[in-house]
Structure formats: structure tokens, C-alpha cells
Amino acid sequence: MSVRENLAFGLKLRKFPKEEIVRRVDDTAQLLEITDLLDRKPKALSGGQRQRVALGRAIVRKPNVFLFDEPLSNLDAKLRVQMRTEIKKLHMQLGTTMIYVTHDQVEAMTMGDRITVMKLGVIHQVDTPLALYNSPADLFVAGFIGNPAMNVLPLALSASDPLAATCGDMALRLPEEHRARLAPWAGKSVVLGIRPECVRLDAASCALPLALSGRHEVSELLGNEVYLYLKAGPSPHRPRGLDAALRPREKPSLCISTWRWRIILMRCRKKDLNSADSGGTSLRLVIG
Fold first, then answer.
1. pLDDT in tens, 263-275
2. How far does CA 238 lie from the centroid of its chain?
3. Is the pLDDT of residue 116 over 50?
């Protein structure tokens, strides 16, 4: 069948009048900018054009709710970005509820008004994209939302001073502003969640920094930014500037910019922490 016949197929089965079918097909083709493709066969279409035709078959029926089940999973990276934008614009134009199922957290964050995060059929959190990013409900959400994933450090708070914390054999001093919130957790274990963009190699760039040290393991150069992977360690070292080249196994000093950070208190089981994607005391940084 041609693209025109594909778009009209569902309407013909429902025995819509011919004039109504023609009008809906033409309107949908204009909306999706595929008018010049109506007489082509599917084999003559690109992947993105086929996706638009598939969307068109649903749009012509004017449903109250759209259900997308990983519609972009078979497309290459560049085409996924393009189609993601087109679906978002389509949602704004139609004003129709869309339920979008995906394993890609970037698609969820960029397209969703509200996101439901599920694992093995269990709902972990339902919230807006920004709320999920800033205040994850548990370790699974913290590790799933954000790329690179959130750094997760298990801390033991001192019983006499909740701002004095240890992570293995590394001692940390938490900011005074969090004393009241941490007071009920004195003498207990908590999880400190740190977004990679909050970690800096230059203490001078941090307001009220939380200092720690780490050993450089791997760098990933992406052009506009660099991902650094470090192992946290007990020994302090001289801070390095953002433009300084790090050699493998080098041990720079680090700081966490507290003006953007949050102490995220999450209830979790020990096995959940051990299986977290952070690898315990592994740190991820984004330099851009």
C-alpha cells in the first residue's frame, strides 16, 4: 500500500465517508509534512519518514489518548533526536494526552511533563522531570535519572556531631547549613547524592566547598565537555585547574560546589547500595 492508503486504512475499516477520509488524510499529511510522500511505498521511505507515517495512522483517528511504546528504539542516534523534537512539537500542536513508554531517560526528561519511574512493575516515583532530577526518592531513581548518573557515597555520621561524616577511611565535614536536617540522623548511616556537575577540580571555583580527594581513572572527551572518572581516597592533594590535563592514576583534590548540591536522605537496603551503579566510592565529574 502507498502512504496515502496506509493512513486511510483504519478509517476505511470503520466505514468513514470517503470525503471525510480524504480530508483527514490530507490534514494529517500536512501536519506531519509528508504531503509529498503520499504516493510512495513504504520501501521508498527513510526510517524517520516511516515513523511519521506510523504517527499519522494514529492521528487520523483523532484519539483521546496516544500510547507510544518505545517508538524511537530502532532509529539511529541522530534520527532519534530529530523525531524526539517532532513528537514534542506534535504534542503541543494537538494538545492530546500522550503516554510514552521508554527505557531512555533522555527521552523521558526532554519530552515528559510528568514521569513515572518503574522497575519490575513497581512504581518508584511519579513527578516532574526537574523534581526527579533534584530530589530522587531512592537509589534507583537517583542512578537512572541523569547522565552521567548521580554519584552515591555511603556516609556514617558521627553520634556527637552530625556534620562530621566518614566514607570508608575518608573524613568529610558537611556544611553548617544542613545541621538541623541531619541532627536526627546523628550516629546513623546516610547516602550522599552528588550530581557530577557539582564536582570541581578547583576549590576556588566552589562557594563553601566540601573538599575530598580522588584518583583519576578514566577521561571521556565529548568536545564541549569532559567526563572524568575518579576513585575517592583519603589523602589530600593540591587542587588543579579545570583546564589542566590529568594523567591516569593522578590524584587531584576535589571539591563539591555546595550552592548547587543537595543532601539527599534516602532509605535503602545495604544490598541496594552495594549494587548501585556508582560503584561505592566512584566519582563522576562533568567539565564543560
1. 555 544 555 444 4
2. 33
3. yes
